[in-house]
Amino acid sequence: MPWIQLTLTTKESYGRQLGDILMANKAQAVTYRDAKDAPIFEPGPGEVPLWELTQVTGLYPAETDMQAVIKNLSKVSFLAKPLRYKTDQLEDKDWEREWMDNFKPIDFGNGLWVVPSWHQPPVADAANILLDPGMAFGTGTHPTTSLCLQWLAEQDLTDKSTVDFGCGSGILGIAALKLGAVSCLGTDIDQQALKATHENAELNGVADKFSVYLPEEAPEHKADVVIANILAGPLRELAPNLLAYLKPGGMIAMSGILVRQAEAVMAAYEPLIQFEPVRESGDWCFLHGRKVNP
């Protein structure tokens, strides 16, 4: 099957957001490269690309209407106007096989593993999250997702209700359920993300405990744990929405935040949230705390 490769350059701080936008515009895979030409694939756990400028490349089937994709990208506020991009025709290649060869089981501690579905779990009785290739929005290797999974693995989630806000692939909600949570409500603005979450929940045998909704269709709900791995801007703007999901005394966990953005995000939740010390991984950070009882 032939492919089209679309490449754009942006500031490092926008790299992940641009990758998400490409995936939302039907890219089958996204890779990142230093604009000075030092290539990487998806970063490993705890690793962050620290480049000033990042090239973000999306891989599209050859039949994709690229003009429609370019039209959508031209509306992205942080990209240069007129839009600067490069497209390349690629040779037919088994991209899924290459992806499979590079995605290995990952241990997040305390018995939590993310395991490609074609691999035998290294620890059979662990909390193993199975993922298939081609699922968008997160495999656990990006630092923001890794920080969330490490935190979840440390918690006693037995019989806890959870919310996965901006659920993407559903990896965080599935992790919570595998670790003993009794239910998870997932929301996302992207129908493809809801589909991916449902399929991954079925693959992991937790679909009966994991309900997914567009935000405007989600029922009123109070949970013991709310977790959101999105971006700093939406986390600030949507603070009332996240807080509305959280029971008094409940725990909130947030990622997708650059270290320099942490104070502004925390300010949107204080004094209702009493925060624990900030955790960092390279330029990224993770915020967690507890809702104060009235």
TrEMBL record:
Principal cellular location given in the protein's record: cytoplasm
Keyword entries, A-Z: Cytoplasm, Methyltransferase, Ribonucleoprotein, Ribosomal protein, S-adenosyl-L-methionine, Transferase
EC number(s) from the headed UniProt entry: 2.1.1.-
Reactions accelerated catalytically: L-lysyl-[protein] + 3 S-adenosyl-L-methionine = N(6),N(6),N(6)-trimethyl-L-lysyl-[protein] + 3 S-adenosyl-L-homocysteine + 3 H(+)
One Pfam short name: PrmA
Localisation: Cytoplasm
Keyword Transcription: no
Single GO biological process annotation from the record: methylation
GO cellular component: cytosol; ribosome
GO molecular function, one term: protein-lysine N-methyltransferase activity
Residues that, per the record, bind S-adenosyl-L-methionine: 145, 166, 188, 229
Keyword Lipid biosynthesis applies: no
NCBIfam families: prmA
Functional description taken from the UniProt entry: Methylates ribosomal protein L11.
HAMAP family: Methyltr_PrmA (MF_00735)
Protein family according to the UniProt entry: Belongs to the methyltransferase superfamily. PrmA family.
Protein name, per record: Ribosomal protein L11 methyltransferase
Naturally occurring in which organism (per UniProt): Aliidiomarina iranensis
The gene coding this protein: prmA
